[in-house]
Write a structure and sequence with these properties.
alpha+beta; six-stranded mixed sheet; 501 residues
Length: 501
Amino acid sequence: GSPAAVSGLPGLGGALSGRLTSDVPGEFAAFTSGPMPSQLLVAGSATVRLRVSAVPGQDPNGQAVLFAKLYDAGPNGTRVLPGAAVAPVRVDPLPANGSPVDVTVTLPGIVQPVQAGHRLELVVSTTDQSYANLAGPAVLRVALAGSTLAVPVVPGTEGSSGLPVGQLAAIGAVLVLCLLAGVVLLVRRRRGDDVDPALAGTPLVLNGLAKSYPGGVVAVDDLSFEVARGQVVGLLGPNGAGKTTALRMMMGLVRPTGGSIRVFGHRIRPGSPVLSRIGSFVEGAGFLPHLSGTANLRLYWAATGRPEADARFDETLEIAGLGTAVRRKVGTYSQGMRQRLAIAQSMLGLPDLLVLDEPTNGLDPPQIRDMREVLRGYAAGGRTVLVSSHLLTEVEQTCTHVVVMHKGRLVAAGEVAEIVSGGGETSFRVDDVARAMTVLGELPGLADEPSASGQEVHARLNGVPRAAAVDALVRAGVAVDQVGPRRRLEDAFLQLVGGER
């Protein structure tokens, strides 16, 4: 049906307020509704009004950056973040005297059935582990400015599922015809497999890939890049950049309207045999909650029709690091454990190309660290990993290469070090800051005068090799402890996409 008018959901009262401390990453305020009396289908963008104020004496430089998320919380404590969607909010100006500022937050659009007994949980945090935030400590007060969370829902009515025998027979005949047509198409597709022998050793090549929808909506526009063996490639871009659409086309789930995708030389189409060489985790995995993790994995593999010996269950479980939890029912898993099980499922058979969409969603910091090692180790054996993520810090620490998309187009691609250092400054940690500034300032070709912060000197080398700069410092008697790019991947990302999120 079409979306109904926005309805108010009671239970998120303004009395539920939280306290945020911006210099302690991860602290948050949570506002929770009462249990749903019946299933609620959320279809669209929820809105809520927040009241934000600074604590006098803890001035956040006149502004605040917050991140809002709407979770589907189950009765057993598990939480699901639909679409891994996050809404960044900037409150500017924010009075230093503690006067509150009301701001309306529109959360990203989702389609999510919220089961009876579940709750909606609005979480407002001071960090999303990826976006630039306040430079100094600050204390904020956050409360709900209104009494409701406005959630767009789709109405429906229950009805009987019984059908007359004649209708069932007609439906059966249609299904048989569809099955026959599918078999014919599959045979034709296999016979007409498009292979480029020159790319047989290349895991992934996108050439002029495009996807548009009726009404002039362009999700992906002339996207071209290549992924080599042994690489861990991060696919980056703001919300709506076209990352997930591109991933779905790589998996043969969405037909492109232009361009081509080749995996090990084979052109990707729905049902292409070469897709068996790809393991994927895109937009969540569905597990049977009453079965164990191991049973779910075995059922999934059985559905592929391939021999059980090819699954390599023991190796996969060892790489994913699930431990004894695989013997428990999935219904008892936390969101982080479900995420790990989904990644283990994508690794079954140890595919040559692993495609993951937000693999660290729902994982705690130790699990994120472990996942970083898992992905690096997986690629170290000659396989390839393509991971889409909004956690820029994790991408910088995990990936060897990055591909940056913006508004459906490619804006940058290359090694992480190249993207980070391009156009940026180089930092030198030295024992004699004043002497180092003099030496670097005398180098020919520098774009600007060097600057200093603490024991570090920063210089825009403008083509001067770092080795030459280090050599000049050492010859002048300056001890150099560390050299590297000053800016982070986050800075490069925001510059490439124009600061949009």
